[in-house]
Write a structure and sequence with these properties.
The structure is a single chain. By secondary structure, the protein is mainly alpha-helical. It has one domain. It is 82% helix and 0% strand.
Length: 304
């Protein structure tokens, strides 16, 4: 019985870990820049080791390499804005903003992947805006800034998700991710050097618990989760995985309530708005699945 559902269990374990990344933005006592810098080098190192061990070294070339490097900068900006949003407000708000990524994909895919725009998905985007209004209508100061930065993070996540989908058509996914992580690491390292902060004492002075959480974030939540997800998609299908990933904000909000006591900081409007956003995102996944089944059915009938 357990063996039959092991891929489902592994998938939800990974989603749970991704949900925990928002909590780590509060637990790790470092600023967002340092958290992202450490996450990048740790994840790139262990992903590189995996690629060498599996002899899958196939870096993109030419224009593909150029676009992969650009996407790597977007990945770094996504994580930076994500953790900045959390540190300015709450983990619940940061992950809720991130859940709007799917709706950015709605208008990005027609531009990048050249597919037809979906008016149903556009309507869902309007509903999400309504949910954000419920969440943030009484926000002030840092909370409002955190919301705007969190939405920028979601936009970046949408850009690299769609871009990676296009790059993966012609390149090895592990190699793409290694180049993107390495690019982000080099870019942030250059920023530290420019700011005169490139010293061991400034970069690696931290509590022991922070270091262990960073290893957990870089190795398990990033490198391992990425590689395991590739295998899970092959076993369970892209729809099951993408729909299940939409549960990430629910896991994060539950964790934030129990570990960070964030329910004391958030009012009922937040949870009404959060419920609306999560329901729209789940509905979006179900509608896409039905559209895909209809397309397959029509294609099959045409062949017959």
């Amino acid at each position: 019985m357990l063996k039959e559902y092991r891929h489902h269990l592994l998938l939800h374990l990974i989603i749970f870990m991704w949900g925990f990344t928002g909590i780590l933005g509060k637990l790790i006592q470092l600023d967002a820049l340092l958290i992202v810098w450490h996450r990048l080098w740790i994840a790139a190192l262990f992903l590189g080791i995996y690629i060498i061990m599996k002899k899958r070294w196939a870096l993109p070339k030419g224009k593909q390499l150029f676009w992969t490097i650009l996407v790597g900068l977007v990945v770094a900006l996504h994580w930076l804005t994500f953790y900045t949003s959390i540190q300015l407000s709450t983990a619940s708000l940061g992950i809720l903003c991130l859940s709007t990524t799917t709706l950015h994909v709605t208008w990005l895919e027609p531009l990048i992947m050249k597919r037809k725009f979906s008016w149903i998905e556009g309507l869902m985007g309007v509903l999400v805006i309504g949910g954000i209004y419920f969440v943030a209508h009484d926000f002030k100061g840092d909370e409002r800034t955190a919301l705007l930065i969190g939405l920028v993070s979601a936009l970046c996540a949408g850009i690299f998700s769609v871009s990676n989908g296009k790059l993966a058509q012609h390149n090895d996914t592990a190699s793409i991710s290694f180049v993107e992580l390495s690019t982000g690491f080099i870019a942030l390292s250059g920023f530290f050097i420019f700011q005169g902060k490139w010293s061991f004492s400034e970069l690696f002075t931290m509590r022991a618990s922070d270091f262990y959480w960073l290893l957990f974030l870089g190795i398990l939540c990033t490198s391992f989760a990425f590689l395991a997800t590739i295998d899970i998609v092959k076993k369970l299908g892209a729809f099951t995985v993408s729909l299940s990933i939409n549960l990430e904000p629910i896991y994060t909000i539950i964790l934030a309530i129990f570990l960070l006591k964030e329910h004391k900081l958030l009012n009922s409007s937040f949870y009404w708005g959060a419920s609306l956003i999560i329901l729209v995102v789940l509905a979006n996944g179900i509608i896409k699945h039905r559209q895909k089944l209809n397309a397959i059915s029509k294609h099959g009938n045409a062949i017959q």
